[in-house]
Amino acid sequence: MLSRLADVLVPTVGRLTVTADADAVLAPGSIIAANHTSLADPAIVLAALHRLDVHPVVMAAAGLWRIPLLGRALTREGHIPVHRNDPRASHALDLAAAALREGRLILIYAEGGIPTRKDASEAAPAPFRTGLSRLAQRTGAPVIPVGQAGARRVTSGNPAKQLAGLATAPLRRPDLHVHVGAPVRLSGDSAATSTRQAHGAVTAAWRTAAAQLGESAALAA
To answer: What is the pTM for the complete model shown?
Structure first.
């Protein structure tokens, strides 16, 4: 339901295009790792994946489950709440590993949060937390890097600016782009090493997406 809803709503706030590497394969039991820049980008990524006939289980902040209608929908569809800085955080990896064994695809945001920048410009992904690499090492699942650009043109900044961005986006309809990279098998003898590998793959996918929007300044940073 969330994927279908995203694919309906996203075109009302922006012009979404999607590309993929020639060897990009969204195989069952894979981990999809995307960069996180805005409250809008999960919907944008889900809409892009829906166009590729992929409907992943999303690992998302547990606070979303406290929103009555949304929380029930997330639970019904098997999405996974992540309790940050909480002993229950490890349980999210258990649930994700179980979903991967069932052949589901998992969408994870390894940065662990949205950047606090006030402007709407693009920037490379922030350093990743180790949950992604630990999940990949535990399950042997390949990681599919996804880069999105343009979400901050929909909504970014402080709460007032975010609301203003959402209100005016249907009039502005900014360009949005999602790029799916080829799957990678994380290697290395430590979580830190494989985390850097995953970060590099997602950064490369983001650079491709940003280039589609002409974000040359971001690419040079």
So the answer is: 0.91
Pick the CATH number of 2-220 from 3.10.20, 1.10.1060, 3.40.30, 3.40.1130: 3.40.1130
Neighbour order of strands in the sheet with 57-61: 15-20, 175-180, 143-149, 31-34, 106-108, 57-61, 80-82
**Strand pairing report for 143-149 and 106-108:** unpaired
pLDDT attached to residue 207: 94
In one letter, which amino acid is 108? I
Q: How far apart are the first and last CA of the chain?
A: 37
Sequence spans of domains, the chain: 2-220
The two three-digit tokens of residue 202, written as one number: 């997602």
Q: Span 64-82, mean pLDDT?
A: 80
Tens digit of each residue's pLDDT (9 = 90 or more) over 168-209: 988 999 999 999 999 999 987 788 899 999 999 999 999 999
Rounded to a whole number of angstroms, the CA Rg of the chain reads: 16
